[in-house]
Amino acid sequence: MGENEKIKVLLLNGGPGATHEYFECFESFFLPQNIEFIYYDQLGCGLSDDPKDTSFWDLSRYVEEVEQVRKALNLNKEIFIYWGIAGAAF
Fold it and tell me: 49: number of CA atoms within 13 Å, CB side?
């Protein structure tokens, strides 16, 4: 959402089990500040495929997923990542 060549934020829902929906409030904060942001549901969460295979719940696999999303969206490596997990943000 939004459009900004310099400030892009990739919102990671955390999980397993969380969804992008709790990030929808960012629209009212980021859009008025002209901050571009992307949210999506990681594998096994929300609207994404849910393979029901717990071997997918592996940190290295999630890191690779983020890298694939970054490449697919043509984001450079200079993006901000906001990772929400279990009610906290990192």
Answer: 4
CA dist., res. 90 & res. 84, Å (int) = 6
Which stretches of the chain drop beneath a pLDDT of 70?
14-17, 77, 85-90
Q: How many domains does the chain have?
A: 1
The string of DSSP letters for 14-26 reads: -SSS--GGGGTTH
Segments forming the whole domain that contains residue 12: 1-55+77-90
- For the entire predicted model, the pTM comes to 0.72
- The candidate with the shortest Cα–Cα distance to 35, out of 13, 3, 10, is 3
What's the pLDDT at 17?
66
